[in-house]
Specification:
- This is Sucrose transporter.
- It is found in: Membrane.
- The protein is mainly alpha-helical.
- It has two domains: 225 residues, MFS general substrate transporter like domains (Growth Hormone, Chain: A), CATH 1.20.1250.20; 221 residues, Up-down Bundle (Growth Hormone, Chain: A), CATH 1.20.1250.
- The protein is built from 24 helices and no strands.
- The N terminus and C terminus are likely disordered.
């Protein structure tokens, strides 16, 4: 098969397409482009005004609002569904929405936003639409009990035997909207920074600010979720009813607070992110750029050996993190506090709030560990650091059946921030080391697949595990044991004696050769 010159292909994209001109279309060359100071490619159709570091900070603020809302969902969704009478089996089915959203929504929104020529810009319309659905989803989730109350034909008593099916359905719809909107906002928000920054330094600064605001948003959400609002304001107690107990009331207040934070953060980002669309429909329609979904599928089955090992570590470790997201606050309420969601002794809600406090300190610790990551990598190396983090994750989860004190559980959840920070940095650094610049985006998308699939499997079999072990800690231990398998693949990642990762291997050269063979079939399409 004819080899394809990638750089030559990019240069040819800047010249008029004569074959297209014969068909009645004209694609302007660089000199004819509407942007006289930039290339006529699709990526530069949005004029880049001068972007300051202050603008980058304000644009990335969107992640704080998004993560604040989602952290509340992680901390409170499982307790709320239990209060509504959802059984363990159906609860695991509810959590399937998250991974499905990651597999379906993100790729579709990414492709659509890349091709969007809305007067408001490529990314901002999708962020705004996602914000609307996120608010709708949160509203349905926190007021599901009240909205379902008028339907007298359904039982209203909140118990495992007599759930209000209308309320459960509305809560599920709200949870689905939140999950899909969360995935829809994430991709365009990250891409927006690459659209508006002017230098490589600003791009690195923008990525750093994303990590910073992510930690701040999570900490804010977990802090709001850890507060017993019924003790803070007397009028909050009036929100309690036979269809909304203490857990539901606290979620109402935290949900309303998160919606205010979300709208403020996203509104600020959308206002300061100035996109000016330059229309060039014919270039888009006849572009020879390969389809990203097609390339992702091809890459998935032809990964080089080092990347395969990185993906396998992610795959196994995320069984542990998936169990954490689904059960960690529920574990404190049920196993540690011995709370009963059907009895108003407040022990379960106290445990949930204690678990949320642990998640708050978890976020704080992860921010500090992320800041120390460059120093740790320079002294330990990426592979050793990841091995330590993955081992710590497995051991911490393995210890959950032996913990019986609330403060010990809070400390354990807090220390889980260390492996979490390592997992959020090391795999992506390895992916950048092992791939060339032009195939990096596809590889990062493939890493997301290896995150979503474990979450999907955990959600599918979580109910069966709960029935089998009869406790939440049993499910956490299963996640721990599977996560430990990732250490084997960490050891197999190639390194030099100095600890520096090998960036050039025969499998990588073969991978790039395959890439050059794949592209021409798409690039030469008329």
């Amino acid at each position: 098969m004819k080899r394809f010159d990638y750089e030559k292909h990019r240069q040819e994209q800047l010249q008029p397409n004569r074959q297209t001109e014969k068909q009645g279309f004209h694609i302007p060359s660089e000199s004819e482009s509407l942007l006289s100071s930039t290339e006529g490619t699709f990526e530069n159709r949005f004029r880049r005004k001068r972007t300051t570091d202050c603008s980058v900070v304000l644009v990335t603020l969107a992640f704080a609002g998004v993560e604040c809302t989602w952290s509340i969902v992680i901390a409170k969704a499982t307790p709320l569904f239990r209060e509504m009478g959802v059984t363990d089996m159906f609860l695991s089915m509810f959590w399937l929405v998250g991974p499905i959203g990651g597999l379906v929504v993100q790729p579709i929104v990414g492709v659509l936003s890349d091709r969007c020529e809305n007067p408001w810009g490529r990314r901002r319309p999708f962020i705004a639409i996602g914000a609307v659905f996120e608010v709708i989803g949160m509203f349905l989730l926190i007021f599901a009990g009240d909205l379902g109350k008028p339907f007298k034909s359904f039982p209203l008593q909140m118990s495992s035997d007599h759930p209000n099916y209308v309320s459960v359905f509305l809560a599920f719809v709200g949870f689905t909207c939140l999950s899909f909107a969360h995935n829809a906002i994430q991709g365009p928000s990250r891409a927006l920074i690459t659209d508006i920054v002017e230098t490589e330094r600003q791009l690195e600064f923008g990525n750093a600010m994303f990590a910073f605001w992510l930690g701040i948003g999570q900490a804010t959400g977990y802090l709001a979720g850890s507060i017993d609002w019924t003790d803070c304001f007397f009028f909050v107690q009036r929100l309690e009813s036979d269809s909304c107990h203490q857990t539901c009331v606290n979620l109402k207040v935290t949900g309303l607070v998160s919606m205010v934070i979300l709208l403020f953060c996203l509104g600020t980002s959308l206002y300061f992110a100035e996109e000016e669309p330059q229309y060039n429909v014919h270039t888009l329609q006849h572009s020879s750029t390969p389809n990203p979904l097609t390339m992702a599928i091809q890459f998935l089955f032809h990964l080089p050996s080092p990347i395969q090992r990185v993906c396998m570590v992610i795959f196994f470790s995320w069984f542990g993190y998936s169990m954490i997201f689904i059960h960690i606050t529920d574990w404190v309420g049920k196993d540690i506090m011995k709370g009963n969601i059907w009895v108003e002794d407040s022990l379960y809600d106290e445990g949930v709030r204690a678990g949320t406090i642990g998640l708050f300190f978890n976020s704080i610790i992860s921010v500090f560990v992320s800041a120390l990551a460059p120093w740790l990598v320079s002294h330990l190396g990426l592979r050793t650091l990841w091995f330590i983090g993955n081992t710590a994750l497995s051991l911490l989860l393995l210890s959950t059946p032996f913990i019986h004190e609330k403060w010990v559980a809070v400390c354990l959840i807090s220390f889980l921030g260390v492996p979490w920070a390592i997992t959020m940095t090391v795999p992506y650094s390895l992916a950048c080391v092992f791939t060339s610049q032009y195939d990096r985006a596809v590889i990062l998308g493939i890493l997301n697949v290896y995150i979503v699939v474990p979450f999907l499997l955990c959600a599918l079999f979580d109910g069966a595990l709960m029935v089998l072990f009869g406790s939440v800690s049993g499910a956490l231990v299963v996640g721990s044991c599977i996560s430990l398998l990732g250490c084997y693949y960490i050891i197999k990642i190639p390194v030099e004696e100095s600890g520096t990762l090998l960036s050039s291997t025969p499998s990588l050269h073969s991978f790039r050769s395959r890439l050059q063979d794949w592209i021409p079939t798409l690039a030469n399409h008329p």
